[in-house]
UniProtKB/TrEMBL annotation:
Family per similarity comment: Belongs to the KAE1 / TsaD family.
Enzyme class: transferase
Domain Gcp-like: 25-306
Protein name: tRNA N6-adenosine threonylcarbamoyltransferase
Positions bound to Fe cation: H112, H116, D299
Localization (cell): Cytoplasm
Function summary: Required for the formation of a threonylcarbamoyl group on adenosine at position 37 (t(6)A37) in tRNAs that read codons beginning with adenine. Is involved in the transfer of the threonylcarbamoyl moiety of threonylcarbamoyl-AMP (TC-AMP) to the N6 group of A37, together with TsaE and TsaB. TsaD likely plays a direct catalytic role in this reaction.
Annotated keywords: Acyltransferase, Cytoplasm, Iron, Metal-binding, Transferase, tRNA processing
Chain positions recorded as substrate binding sites: L135, V136, S137, G138, G139, D168, G181, E185, N271
InterPro entries listed in its UniProt record: ATPase_NBD, Gcp-like_dom, KAE1/TsaD, TsaD
Length: 330
């Protein structure tokens, strides 16, 4: 069994994990930075990068301790090399390079999106390629056909905001604070999803792309009108997002070719209403449905370690001078 050290630092979570190629999660540690960013209502890149510098090395040491391992026991060091906030990505990648060089281990530069895309295979050993993936996070909203490691065909993307961004902005409009997604979901539970008429951008259009900017503006207008209860706005907003995701996935299923499984990954996949709508969609199309456990949906280092393990098994390692990339489409 190969053991991979995974490192994640592309946004506001610093994380380290030790993952076995047999899918064993030997250790995973995570330090969020919510308190540091809360006063600003969103992630401040410079604060994030400084926080990664402070906590990443102790996190890696703690993960090794948890697993009862030393760096010598590790077969490769995998770190997110992009896309993401470049200062933070550089902190994690440089740390990984230093460890790889010091211990004489190979480096694996992981695309953060590939980490999300392959994470369902860490959670479910029976999930085979190809599968249809809805990747929904704060920065991304894509439908991908995953044919193998490194083989991704993008069927849809967002033409403006990502779904998670729409949740975060709705939370800000409703004064729920940061991070927004879980708070909007919690408030939506007590609201009426039919109370506020909100648009479903691009619904029914031929291309399976997403758009959420217009929905966000409509939420703002509804909130400013003073005519609606916040819980009804939250519930109506969430229902609009669900409708858009399902309609666009229907298109992608029709256009993307056969896939036995529908898979969801990324932070927004933590949303219960979205998960159950996706499960029903998969059942209607006779597809299996895989959603990783919640902790594996939001940013973490286990998915980076696992993507590293998948790449390591194929002999895909990277040179020590590889650069961090703020943008890096799959
Ligand atoms: O994957 P992730 O941790 O970071 C990125 O790579 O973006 O995703 C974070 C996003 C945030 O926009 C957050 O509001 C959203 O996922 N999110 C949720 C929920 N939990 C997290 N959105 C809706 N409902 C949730 N329960
Ligand atoms: Zn992410």
């Amino acid at each position: 069994m190969a053991i991979i050290l995974g490192i994640e630092s592309s946004c506001d979570e610093s994380a380290a994990a030790l993952i076995g190629s047999d899918r064993s999660i030997l250790a995973h540690r995570l330090a969020g930075q919510e308190d540091a960013h809360r006063p600003y209502g969103g992630v401040v890149p410079e604060i994030a990068a400084r926080a990664h510098v402070q906590v990443l090395t102790p996190l890696i040491e703690a993960a090794l301790n948890d697993a009862g391992l030393t760096l010598d026991d590790v077969d490769a060091v995998a770190a997110t090399a992009g896309p993401g906030l470049i200062g933070g990505v550089m902190v994690g990648l440089v740390t990984a390079k230093a460890l790889a060089m010091a211990a004489g281990k190979p480096l694996i530069a992981v695309n953060h999106l590939e980490g999300h895309a392959l994470s369902p295979r860490l959670a479910d050993s029976s999930l085979e390629f190809p599968y249809l993936l809805l990747l929904v996070s704060g920065g991304h909203c894509q439908i991908l056909r995953v044919d193998g490691v490194g083989q991704y065909r993008r069927l849809a993307t967002t033409i403006d905001d990502a779904a998670g961004e729409a949740f975060d902005k709705t939370a800000k409009i409703l004064g729920l604070g940061y991070p927004g997604g879980p708070r909007v979901e919690a408030l939506a539970k007590t609201g009426d999803a039919r109370a506020v008429p909100l648009p479903r951008p691009l619904l029914g259009s031929a291309e399976p792309h997403f758009s959420f900017a217009g929905l966000k503006s409509a939420v703002l207008r509804a909130a400013q009108s003073g005519n609606y209860r916040p819980e009804d706005i939250a519930a109506s907003f969430q229902a609009a997002v669900v409708d858009c995701l399902i309609d666009r996935l229907e298109k992608a299923i029709a256009q993307g070719g056969p896939a036995s499984h529908l898979v969801v990954a990324g932070g927004v996949a933590a949303n219960g209403a979205i998960r159950s709508a996706l499960e029903a969609l998969a059942a209607r199309h006779d597809m299996g449905f895989v959603a990783p456990p919640l902790w594996l949906c939001t940013d973490n280092a286990a998915m980076i370690g696992w993507a590293g393990a998948e790449r390591f098994a194929l002999g895909l390692t990277d040179p020590l001078d590889i650069a961090a990339r703020p943008r890096w489409p799959l």
